């Protein structure tokens, strides 16, 4: 009888986990992240490394790119970064937006970094205009960096770099881990062409370059759990323990 009950428990738990896990798996399409104008972004990408996501809209009329980068710091007191590299495809030369947390539960603080070497991480001015810069905290320790940037007229792509780290000391970020995922967090972001979404002239912000954007929408992660089925499984577990 005991072995029979144990088997039922294992089957019930397996069923419960199989129901819950897909519901909590994240893709960019499950995230309710909006622009400063509280409208959906034109498209989103599940980035290939570091469990990160990019929502973006390209405005061909004024050569601007509005983005929301979503990632989770390595630790609650860590940082995330999204950057454009105008001169290469790696970290050196990247013009980075960094959101950091100095303590658990604290609001993320935004800084900009002009990265000139792997060993020197110093705040600095960026090589291009940007506006509507802000950060927000989501559930599950995730952080979002919002910004709009000016890209050169006629460009059909930009080199993007993203990163996460867990070391913040006195408001300064430390070096990120050197795991394969951290070293492979670069890609080309296509703005135009057959593999990019059509331009959306009305999609980007019209705030003048150089002015920081004010508070906007509070994006949130959405999870869809079939509560009816899940509660049924819990009831089954309860009946097993009663037996």
TrEMBL record:
Chain segments carrying region Disordered: 194-218
One cellular component term from this protein's GO annotations in UniProt: membrane
CDD domains linked: DOMON_CIL1_like (cd09629)
Domain DOMON residues, every copy: 50-165
One Pfam family named in its UniProt record: DUF568
Record's signal peptide: 1-25
Coiled coil: none
Annotated InterPro entries: AIR12_DOMON, DOMON_domain
Key words of the record: Electron transport, Membrane, Signal, Transport
Protein localization: Membrane
Entry annotated with the keyword Methyltransferase: no
Chief location: membrane
Biased composition (Low complexity): 194-210
Alphabetized PANTHER family for the sequence: CYTOCHROME B561 AND DOMON DOMAIN-CONTAINING PROTEIN (PTHR23130), DOMON DOMAIN-CONTAINING PROTEIN (PTHR23130:SF180)
Protein name (record): DOMON domain-containing protein
Organism: Brassica carinata (Ethiopian mustard)
